[in-house]
Amino acid sequence: MSLVPQTPNLSQTARSFWDRREGTAGKIVLAAAALGAAGAAVFFWGLIVPFLVGVAGHTLQLALLVAALMVVTSPLWSSRVRFVTNLAFQQAMRWSVGVFIQTDPIGILRSNITQIREQVEEFDKGVASIAGARQRLFDDIEQQKIGIQKNKSLADSTDQQIAKLQRAIDQAPAAQQPSARALQEVQLKIEGMRLQKQGYGQAAGFQISTIRAEQPLLEQADKMYEQMSRIRTLAAFKADSLSQQADMQAKRHAMMESAGSALRAGNKILKGDPKQMALIEQTIEYLNNEASDTLGMLNDFNRWSDKYLTDMDIQNGANADDAFKMFAQMESKLALPPGANAPPELDALPDFSSPDVQKLLK
């Protein structure tokens, strides 16, 4: 047993709440509460999420519908949008008409000329109808004039008959005076003839009234017929002129198409097809590179061959000089008298009869 005093370890003697038995139960309770809260959160979140998704989706749909409605109704409340829409519509119509005209301009021109000729034919029918009405008015007026002359003649004849009967009564002798009955019959006949004359006059009056009513109509019909005839002549002239222009435009269009084809062919010949020209340029570039590489190799070969040949020439020249010196020494050695000692430098000459020297000489 140690006599040294020791400091007690309070951390080992006094345990915390969570290390005790009730702390363990508290941990279990808190873990269960956390799991329950997490489950409740997941459950209620699963119920809330569809609602939130529906609200967000309907809000987005409402915003898109409102935006689409604003775009659709913008020409009604925005003058700038109306102006832009009008310009866009006009530009689209110009483009569509331009494309349509470029498709077959001569056909469109001839179709319009055909429509003009059909209009001229319809106008001819109207002019013919006016001419018929005018002629009927003229004939009716002439018939009315003839009727007036006839009624006048009948009225004059009736006057003559009345005067004749009246003279017959007045100039009858006293012994031959007609009876009262015969006189009454003559008077009745005269009155009837007078009534008949009055009818002729009324008929002539009606005929005169008819002429007075139809005469302005005839004048208007004459004026309208004259104007319509002039318009018909101008319309026919316009149709003929447009037909001639169409023929001229057709010839010029055919010539322009031929010229355009020739120009396109000429441009292809002068400028060439871009793809074909690119291939040709690549081929020419390859040939140029090949020629450059070959020329470079030739230059390099010539440079090295010149150097090699130069070295060979130098070496051959040096060997020739050595051979010439050797031959000179040999001649000096051969020129010595018999039994004479050769100089030391001549003794150093190789033996030309040896195989090695013969091999080198070969």
What is the terminal-to-terminal distance?
117 Å
Number of strands: 0
In helices, the fraction of residues equals: over 70%
CATH topology of the largest domain: Helix Hairpins
Which spans of ≥5 residues are poorly predicted at pLDDT below 50? 1-8
Whole-number tally of structural domains = 3
Structural class: mainly alpha
Largest sheet: none
- Average pLDDT taken over every residue: 76
Per DSSP, the total helix count is: 8
Question: SSE order, as H and E?
Answer: HHHHHHHH
Structure write-up:
This protein has 362 residues and is mainly α. It has three domains: 25-103; 109-272, Helix Hairpins, CATH 1.10.287; 281-334 and 344-361, no CATH class. Helix content is 87%, strand content 0%. It has eight helices and no strands. The chain has helices at residues 10-13, 21-77, 79-103, 105-170, 180-270, 274-334, 344-347, 355-361. α2 (21-77) crosses α3. The longest helix is centred in the middle third of the chain and has 91 residues, at 180-270. The protein is elongated, with a radius of gyration of 70 Å. Residues 1-8 have low confidence and may be disordered.
